[in-house]
Amino acid sequence: MTPRFVRYLPILTWGRHYDRSALTNDLVAAVIVTIMLIPQSLAYALLAGLPPEAGLYASIAPILLYAVFGTSRALAVGPVAVVSLLTASAVAQVAEQGTAGYAVAALTLAALSGGFLLLLGVFRLGFLANFLSHPVIAGFITASGILIATSQLKHILGVEGGGHTLIDMVSALVSHAGQVNPVTVLIGVTATAFLFWVRKGVKPLLVRMGAGPRLADIATKAGPVAAVVATTFAVWAFGLAERGVSVVGEVPQALPPLTLPGYAPDLIRQLAIPAILISIIGFVESISVAQTLAAKKRQRIDPNQELIGLGAANLGAAFTGGYPVTGGFSRSVVNFDAGAETPAAGAFTAIGLAVAALALTPLVYYLPNATLAATIVVAVLSLVDFAILKKTWSYSRADFAAVAATILLTLTLGVEIGVASGVILSIALHLYKTSKPHVAEVGLVPGTNHFRNIHRHDVTTDPEVLALRVDESLYFVNARFLEDLIQDRVVDGAALRHVILMCSAVNEIDYSALESLEAINLRLRDLGVGLHLSEVKGPVMDRLKTTHFLDQLNGRVFLSQYDAWTALAKPNDPAKAAE
Amino acid sequence: MTPRFVRYLPILTWGRHYDRSALTNDLVAAVIVTIMLIPQSLAYALLAGLPPEAGLYASIAPILLYAVFGTSRALAVGPVAVVSLLTASAVAQVAEQGTAGYAVAALTLAALSGGFLLLLGVFRLGFLANFLSHPVIAGFITASGILIATSQLKHILGVEGGGHTLIDMVSALVSHAGQVNPVTVLIGVTATAFLFWVRKGVKPLLVRMGAGPRLADIATKAGPVAAVVATTFAVWAFGLAERGVSVVGEVPQALPPLTLPGYAPDLIRQLAIPAILISIIGFVESISVAQTLAAKKRQRIDPNQELIGLGAANLGAAFTGGYPVTGGFSRSVVNFDAGAETPAAGAFTAIGLAVAALALTPLVYYLPNATLAATIVVAVLSLVDFAILKKTWSYSRADFAAVAATILLTLTLGVEIGVASGVILSIALHLYKTSKPHVAEVGLVPGTNHFRNIHRHDVTTDPEVLALRVDESLYFVNARFLEDLIQDRVVDGAALRHVILMCSAVNEIDYSALESLEAINLRLRDLGVGLHLSEVKGPVMDRLKTTHFLDQLNGRVFLSQYDAWTALAKPNDPAKAAE
């Protein structure tokens, strides 16, 4: 057994030490998670525009495959809200909801997403996910929460609806406002209110009644199950389905079927970009949860192996009647809090859900869609966080711009354009910031060997010496900036004889910046001004030594700025220099 | 007269101090540049696929307008090789060469380019040109040189040709190889050989004969005029035009006409992207030349005003029968070396060219196109510089990749895709490099208060203290990298009690990195490990103070790494720590 083989199969690591205590803990966690997942899976399938059983199927094979290939001990894989929304948005572009083509497109999306994740993992390209900055993710999640909640209003009101942007959804609701079904509204609003209360009020109540906070937490998660049971019973007992309340209806009593994703080139071309987007967003959500949980137990997550685990899970979903999945936040936290020790807990959850799919599906015939919609609305409203706007505004205008643009464009133009614009804007703003680096003119703090900004401190300077501290790596985007800056300073300073670049914060000098330095050196030489460097970092110096720049330098390289100053300056006292 | 008004009209600055000595110098320079520009203008028009007079016209109004709006004292504006190639490539996509539509498209391209440059200048967006890294420019110029030289082979061989990629051009030449005209080849090859000799051999010869090196330089530039005169005379005297030698033919005897660029939305849409590309590449070429020449005389160039100057010049070209122009390298250097002191030299050159357009055009009737092609080939081969591949390879693989990709893609897929790919690749490589920053574990150099990399130096460490120096700004692309790194180190170091991040080279912490630091802080706190910061820069600290991060920090902020070490470490000696 080679080490490489083991790396790709984390199950071989934890599986060898599996014991009775771990088994007991995993079983308990599995029971709790299974109960929570049954209504959640049905609800997210509804959100994705798929038949309810697709949600169950998407939770079975993927969990098993992740247990074999994933590195997190507590992550629970399955349908999640944001990915379900993205699926609905992508699949609606190629097929009509309710058709066979729609389900096939969802399978294809899962297959493409799985393949893409596997590729990223095998080629160790997990760092690509870093291009989604936190502000873009936060903005996207908030906007998605609003879109998802709005999309469920049609079920709570019992009217037709549609659309994938906020404006489309609201106008669809308004134009169908006449269809509102009072009984559906009663069920939907009651369920929503109940679930909000469970979320906020039950835990303190249980704690006051003597329950441990962990138990109280888990009981809170059972709220949706209670709502499902109560409203299903009500619909059955009072015959509300005949009064226009839309119910889940017939769900096949079966294990996940063997399915084939579509392979028409046209379909694949149309779904490729959404699949990449779903993969990356799903990966970012999953890895954040996995890392947070692993950190609590000093466990290690391998991001590239996680890609392989999630890739396998999505391929599993594609071939067993599911749709794109990822590691979900709430289910993973419940799994962790319930005591899951290894991925075997996930495997037991899968068995639990398989039993549910086989035996319990007739029980949800009378489950009102309004209740499922209520569970979604309450779950996703916790994703909505406008505080991020205030936080980023006070911290950095660039980050604020990224959040605001992502929220606005996701709501108005849809999820794909929203995220893509956010990513491009973040990169552009970062490049813009580094294109005008902070460059401080420094002087000697009298009585020390420290150098500080002449505009902030009382320091000693010399009109013949210009000492500039560059607070940024030098690369093509800011190379010309330095040329312009030095040129301007040289034109102003007729007495100037030496320019010293203090490079303590220069982590890289790329080839463009090297050429700019060469140009600066030549221009200064023509004017009889020396160019000197100080405090150049080891790796930067190593690289400069491979070139002729140091030979041609019309000046010297000093280890410290103080050495440079001692060698070159005939200092004035600060009062005189300020004249 | 407001200062803002003066800023937009640099002519008001130099014009007020204009005197007789400057006039004399400017007149001498103008005569020399005019003689050089006549054949060059005709040749570049040929390269752009336009009638020869377009080259003359493109040198008249643009020079005058640049003299009013530009900030360089020595820049000579007009048709240049690379921009002519880009024009040919762009215009060929919308019109057939030789048609009226072709000339109108060239005017439109100049108008769009002028408008775009003006916009960039007025909104002070000149920094956008920095996104073209030096490797991308170098690769593009080299590839363009090859493409241009190849495109002229058809004139030297006297065959038909075409295409805008290397493969297309070569296969067009091969398929027409049967048409080769021996007389044309004789003229073309002789002219090429002569011009190469002039370039390499004449200057040493003249210097040996007692001429000053500056005069010898300028005489070298007259080589093309000599070739033009000799071959024109030969064609006329021996009736070679009747033997199949293609000649320039009738050129109207006229001042630049008043022309209107096209304004069809379709045409503008098709030419918009090429116009942006031409603007930026032209601007980069022009500003480099202008800055190099200005530096020699401690003069100042305002890049944003340069955009306005070049914008006006291109608009001038669009309305007077020209095509896109920019500040050319060789003509500007000749202008400078010939003693031009102010933009008035350019104005006199324009008058000289206007006289040529009015009076001298009948003289070029028998000028063979092969001679013009020879002047182009010899001029552009000096642009081809494969040494850049070797230089960047030894300096930085990332820069090498940018050069190589730009050369390869420009040659095989055309100029637009080549440059665009180069820019995207440079940005991606930069982001990739900063996504995995250099992080050094540091220890105390015994007997000092300096800290150095534990893998490079014999330093004192403490197994309870992990001191990491981060050599990069922290932002979204590398935020997760730091999380992963610290997580890994914490899992490995069971004895660990303190993590110190030494931030002397951290020039920025964006919101994503702030959230990562918060996550790291919480995870370390859960494990009873402290997180401390040292040597945080002023602007970074100012920003952190606006957040709650410092309040929640499970550790302290130290001014220096030495303070942190003194407060936290119980040092082992290096020998023991290495165990």
TrEMBL record, chains A, B:
Signal peptide: none annotated. It is a multi-pass membrane protein. InterPro entries: SLC26A/SulP_dom (IPR011547), SLC26A/SulP_fam (IPR001902), STAS_dom (IPR002645), STAS_dom_sf (IPR036513). Keywords: Membrane, Transmembrane, Transmembrane helix. The chain crosses the membrane at residues 27-48, 101-123, 135-157, 177-198, 218-238, 271-295, 307-325, 345-365, 372-389, 401-429. The keyword Nuclease does not apply. SUPFAM superfamilies: SpoIIaa-like. CDD domains: STAS_SulP_like_sulfate_transporter. It is found in: Membrane. Its main location: membrane. Residues 455-568 form the STAS domain. PANTHER family: SULFATE TRANSPORTER (PTHR11814). This is Sulfate permease. It comes from Arenibacterium halophilum.
